[in-house]
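Researcher: Sequence recovery benchmark, item below. Answer with residues only.
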């Protein structure tokens, strides 16, 4: 196969930085943020969290922290001790209900109530990080808008999460009163970064997740959250943007065909181009299309057409070792040239995801209006398996972000990682907010 046809394929599918105009995408993204904040039609939900960042953390007060993520449900008791010491006790990881098979609303909350039961005697405060789109109420409960990440629990949609969990606990015979604070994982991650002892170094904070799904939270002034007049002029608060929904991104035919085969075609376009639930399957779609364009030998074409499942972990194993996980035997028969071409295509898909992730972060930094002095950068607390495990992803994303933010829109940032950020952020929210119903 000729070098030029491979680079033509990559170029014609707009997989290189030169074909992705960050200036246009950033402008569109900021416009969508503004529309979402105003309550106008927008691909971004821009959900208020009713949580601000001017908190002082009560020390030596245990709080129950819950984290309902894409695959796992984690629970622990967390106590902040001062001098940046955090005690995490009774830490347990369970399976997220609805991940393996469909569950009813009753089953969903009963399963979670069983996970929480062993911790209930330890604290009356519960911080609950819920990594799905939820409309949060000023009393810190929240209504599930819909599930993402293939969770199968359709009856839960439209329900209040904390009220329903509380009912399940009461039905199990628990009589205590708890105060619940529900928050998105990006909001929790932002809070964990803010509580970090070095936080005085930063001008503002962003919480960014790039794992199974993707999303961003940032800090916005109350006066700009036009859709909730009760917030106008009231300080600031963290906004869960649901940035994975952003849909004004130039796509190739292959992206469009891939999207049409997902559960929610036309939605979560950004998430489908960058996050772990989709990156491997999308790369496979590109490989199959490259095979149809004659970019592989006949035997290579047969190999790629025979693969039905290529999850992001498989894709990553291929990038690291030229084989796969379950797919290793199939790939071992590839010729060196086919392997080289497949690697170049997968790397281009990953590179584009890194560019888009950087563009997304640049837009939120610019929207925050902060970080214009090098001694006070914006702190991006970042979480997620795709960001940290996919080969060279974080380095690529950071180098694109630096490139985008130098020049006319000079801004400074620092990406940090906090162990157990969603759980720690849930604990902070549980301790520092004042839920009105308990
Ligand atoms: C969800 C977000 C979540 C993100 C990262 C997306 O699928 O809609 O609420 O923050 O995944 O976990």
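Model:
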């Amino acid at each position: 196969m000729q070098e030029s046809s491979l680079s033509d394929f990559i170029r014609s599918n707009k997989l290189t930085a030169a074909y992705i105009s960050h200036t246009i995408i950033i402008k569109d993204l900021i416009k969508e943020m503004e529309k979402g904040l105003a309550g106008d039609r927008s691909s971004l939900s821009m959900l208020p969290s009713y949580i601000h960042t001017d908190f002082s953390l009560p020390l030596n007060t245990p709080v129950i922290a819950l984290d309902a993520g894409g695959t796992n449900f984690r629970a622990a008791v967390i106590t902040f001790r001062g001098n940046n010491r955090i005690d995490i006790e009774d830490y347990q990881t369970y399976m997220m209900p609805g991940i393996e098979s469909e569950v009813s609303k009753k089953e969903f909350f009963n399963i979670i109530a069983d996970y929480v039961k062993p911790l209930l005697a330890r604290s009356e405060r519960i911080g609950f990080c819920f990594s799905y789109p939820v409309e949060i109420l000023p009393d810190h409960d929240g209504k599930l808008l819909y599930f993402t990440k293939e969770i199968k629990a359709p009856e839960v949609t439209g329900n209040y999460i904390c009220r329903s969990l509380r009912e399940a606990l009461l039905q199990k015979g628990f009589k205590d009163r708890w105060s619940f604070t529900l928050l998105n994982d990006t909001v929790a991650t932002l809070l964990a970064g803010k509580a970090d002892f070095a936080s005085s170094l930063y001008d503002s904070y962003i919480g960014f997740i790039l794992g199974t799904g993707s999303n961003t939270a940032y800090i916005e002034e109350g006066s700009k959250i036009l859709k909730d007049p009760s917030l106008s002029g009231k300080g600031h608060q963290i906004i869960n943007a649901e940035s994975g929904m952003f849909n004004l991104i130039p796509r190739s035919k292959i992206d469009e065909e891939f999207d049409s085969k997902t559960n929610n075609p036309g939605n979560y376009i950004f998430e489908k181009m960058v996050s772990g639930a989709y990156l491997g399957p999308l790369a496979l779609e590109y490989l199959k299309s490259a095979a149809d364009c004659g970019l592989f030998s006949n035997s290579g074409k047969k190999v790629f057409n025979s693969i039905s499942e290529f999850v992001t972990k498989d894709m990553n194993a291929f990038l690291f070792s030229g084989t796969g996980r379950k797919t290793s035997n199939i790939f071992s028969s590839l010729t060196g040239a086919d392997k080289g071409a497949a690697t170049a295509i997968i790397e281009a898909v990953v590179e584009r995801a890194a560019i888009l992730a950087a563009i997304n972060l640049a837009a939120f930094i610019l929207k925050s209006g902060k970080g214009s002095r090098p001694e006070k950068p914006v702190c991006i607390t970042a979480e997620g398996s795709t960001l940290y495990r996919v080969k060279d992803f974080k380095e690529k994303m950071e180098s694109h972000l630096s490139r985008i933010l130098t020049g006319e829109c000079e801004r400074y940032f620092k990406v940090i990682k906090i162990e157990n950020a969603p759980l720690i952020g849930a604990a902070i929210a549980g301790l520092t907010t004042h839920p009105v119903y308990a």
